[in-house]
Amino acid sequence: MTSAAPRVEFPHEPGTVPQPHRGAAWRGLLIPLGFLAPALLLLGIWMVYPTIATMWRSLFSDRGDAFVGIENYKRLFTDDLIFESIKNNALWVLIIPAAVTAVGLVFAVLVERVRWSVAFKIAVFMPLAVSLFAVGVIWRIMYQQDPERGAINAAFAGARGFVAEEGVLSRAQPSTEMLQGSPAQGFTFRRAVAPGAVAPLGLTAIRAPEIPEEAKDAVLPGPLENGITGVVWRDFSPRGGTTGKVDPGELGIPGATVELRDERGKKLDSTRTAEDGTFAFAEVPEGATAVAVGQGTFAAPFKGVNWLGDKLITPAIMFSYIWVTAGFAMVIIGAGLAAIPRDVLEAARTDGGTEWQIFRRVTVPLLAPVLTVVFVTQIIGVLKIFDLVLAIAPGSSVDDASTLAYVMWQRSFSGQNLFGLGAAISTFLLLLFIPFLIVNIRRFRADTK
Amino acid sequence: MASVTYDRVSKIFEETTAVDELSLDIGDGEFLVLVGPSGCGKSTALRMLAGLEDISEGEIRIGDRVVNNVAPAERDVAMVFQSYALYPHMSVYDNLAFGLRNQKVPKEEIDRRVRQAAEILDLGQLIKRKPKQLSGGQRQRVALGRAIVREPAAFLMDEPLSNLDAKLRVQTRAEILKLQQRLGTTTVYVTHDQVEAMTMGDRIAVMNAGVLQQIGTPEELYTNPRNVFVAGFIGSPAMNLVPVEAATDGERDVLRQDGFAVEVPEGMISRLRERAPSTLMAGFRPEHLHLSNGEPANQQARIPAVVDVVEYLGDEQLVHLHAGEVNLVAKLDIDEGRVKPEENVHLALPLEKLHLFDRETEESVGVPTPA
After folding, report:
1. Are residues B148 and B264 in the same domain?
2. Domains of chain A: residue spans and CATH
3. Residue ranges making up the domain that contains B101
4. Looking at residue B331, which CATH number applies to its domain?
5. Among B88, B89, B102, beta carbon nearest to A351
6. Judging by beta carbons within 10 Å of its beta carbon (0-12, 13-18, 19+), is residue A303 exposed, middle or buried?
7. Is-contact A301 A166, C-beta < 8 A?
8. Hey, are the CB atoms on B86 and A354 less than 8 Å from each other?
9. Which residues in chain A land under pLDDT 70?
10. Model-wide pTM > 0.90
11. What is the ipTM of this complex?
């Protein structure tokens, strides 16, 4: 106990409460109004007035000089690009809110179990701090088709390198008729081969820069008792020479794929040529009848996926949107997870639940209100998607990526000056928002009750 | 059903040792109460058994199976939480059925067991309600029901009565006991309330600061507390604990305290000296004190004291007194006569009810028996 007397404040006794005097009622109204005024003023100028003005404007011609009634709405529903935009918007609404919620949920659950969870959270949340347009610019660059320029295709090219190697040559032709085929099938040596055979596989019509630097003068190897030997070389010499023969100064082709094939052309064994173009199969598998320069020699390099082309542009933009919003979803859902009583989850664990059963039957149902918030917020966010479309889609495919907000901007402000139509699109978009806004407001009211 | 064994189990949280080499053998069908003040490690010990905390050292066995690395779901135990931890989005029925559904028990079997548990616990009318629509006592019964439908090897209860009001607590205490006797399931029950421990446990394990102090039947703990902590913790009102010196005052043997001396039978001090130092802690329970007006009777210690406050309890009176600087509490039968504040009284204590502890180690040196 402290020695200082505690300070006690006594409530007003009945009857001693200061009575409101005249004009107090008016003042009672004035003070809240005073606090509300700045917000009302700003909302009035920037929200209410523009909304009404836009709806009114949609009834006038593009130049605003003639009242056209619902003419602009008729145009709206006969415009192919707008139709495409509605389709895209529908795709966005169907896919993105569910995807963002799911990804956020997975992140939120996993992040609780990682050691560096704060670092991970920051990394996932960071994109939200970048302006959407800047995000678009970043992804536009990352989506470049050339693996030398676009990070995503570079990553794909890197990953591909482990699976299938690029061939040494892009194209070639046989130097004699002893070889038949095409780069796509490989070139087969026409003579049947048996142990002890030596196969000269001459190629020509090779672009000089494609011959690897380490290439040495070709040599025709001697026969092997039980195997097959040979050489793949550039059967061309500026000083002449005989086609089909390894002449001095002709270069071997290192790294070419050589295959042993059976009658039906099926690959039985394969090897690579040495620096002087020679190859050797120490043993000949049963059924091997032919030797061939494999098509692997001519495998085309990875050219990159055309992310920004008309087919993939919408999925590409969607992916970048998920990248931005997953952090938001993760944080909100994470807060919801933290609010679940630990006891309940522990009870479920002792109640014989596996992690998955607990997640599905306890965690997710308890998170349902939070998941709904994220979901509805995303629907609203997705309906108005604009900046990413503008920033990511190049001119050639922007029509395939178009959304309502984008087409509204394009029709009105990108130089087309179709302001009547633009206002009609805006009004139409507003109508689409209303159901979700009502749902949100209803839930907000239910929460405060 | 199975026995439960703690074999030198420790739990170390970074720097603090929450449970220190706990060893317990809990028999099949036994009702064991883990009791101690908050923070003594009793809940941690239980949570390790449930699988909700890792075991730092030692081994826990359920039956013959070592469960250290077995997931909670696989341990075949059911836990009842202080907060009840009901699934708020499920009806009572679904709460009860949750564990069985996880184990893929056939539907008819689930239904039979849930209905049976609901009947035992008188939840029949409430089966379709959500936890939010239930009272505290009803929720508590659902939590119990969730444990019994599983028919587990052991019930683990973590202060299941703490959130109930006093009257309901006494009632539910009896219900849990009846239920346990009927089902015969091994039960480990954690509480901080020694009354709960005394009334419910077949045996009681008293813990303090992570260390097991004593384990025994309620009667053993009451009559033979092994150390000062158990002596002070078990029993209500708490045992009087008075630091005393064993001395010989002229020809008389006394236990001396600053303000007063208690005469004890001849020869007792010399016998005590053989096994204990002379600085002792004397302990005696309020209910073992009586008023004494006449001469010192045989085999009784006499304590002169002054009454401070009297709490009247109907058939008994709880008397707070002081003897010298020492505050004492006595629970006196009303038939012994009402006492009043400021009254000088003599308290008599049968010597076989006197506990003596080594003040240094706080261990019991036994009840001094007459020659």
Report:
1. no
2. 71-155+307-448 (1.10.3720.10), 173-298 (2.60.40)
3. 4-233
4. 2.40.50.140
5. B102
6. exposed
7. yes
8. no
9. 1-23, 160-166, 447-449
10. no
11. 0.82
